Amino acid sequence: MPDFSDLADLYQEIIMDHRRSPRNEGLPPGHDHSADGFNPFCGDKVSVGLKMEDGVIVDVGFEGEGCAISIASASLMTESVMGRPVDEAVKIFHAFRDLLTNTDGSASADTPSDLGDLEALAGVKAYPTRIKCATLSWHTLKAAIDKKAKPVSTE
Ligand code: FES
Q1: ∠112-131-145 over CA atoms, to 5°?
Q2: Of 3, 23, 62, 131, which has the most beta carbons under 10 Å away?
Q3: First vs last Cα of the chain: how many Å apart?
Q4: Where are the domains of the chain?
Q5: What is the pLDDT of residues 69-127, one digit of tens each?
Q6: With a 6 A CB cut-off, is 131 part of the ligand 1 pocket?
Q7: Would the CB of 69 count as within 6 Å of ligand 1?
Q8: What residues does 48 pair with on adjacent strands?
């Protein structure tokens, strides 16, 4: 079992890998859901587009500009929800949000127990302003699922 410093290094490596080589960059061709997100704290913006078939996210992508955490989180988000039914994607969104904001370590009753590489972003919890960087693309994903026309803000 890795010690905490190994784990921190691994998490750092996952974040930098997704920052350097973001997965699913660009809105998918023929997407039928999309939304724009905005972080007023820094002015960064992200757009998320989805293609849905029978309640399943068959394609998802993002575009925008932001800090390393926001781009890595958007990339990880697309990998996490690609090919999943929408209700599962929403559960992962809630679990990820809980991971970053629940200070007592508790989780929602329907929280998936294993968030995989998303757990690399758990360290962001110690830096409240960076939580918005990590959740920007997720709020935008949820707005795209809900077909919200107005840009969503992290505030
Ligand atoms: Fe803008 Fe992180 S500093 S999203």
Answers
A1: 55
A2: 62
A3: 39
A4: 4-153
A5: 999 999 999 999 999 999 999 999 999 999 998 765 555 555 566 788 988 888 888 88
A6: no
A7: yes
A8: 35, 62
CA distances from 122 to 56, 79, 100, 138 (A): 27, 17, 6, 15
pLDDT of 108: 54
Residue 44: pLDDT band with limits 50, 70, 90: very high
**Measured in angstroms, how far is the CA atom of residue 100 from the centroid of ligand 1?**
16
Any atom of ligand 1 within 6 Å of the Cβ of 73: no
Token representation of residue 124: 């962001």
pLDDT at 137: 97
Atom of ligand 1 nearest to the CA of 69: 2
67 lines ligand 1 (CB under 6 A): yes
CATH class of 4-153: alpha beta
pTM, full prediction: 0.89
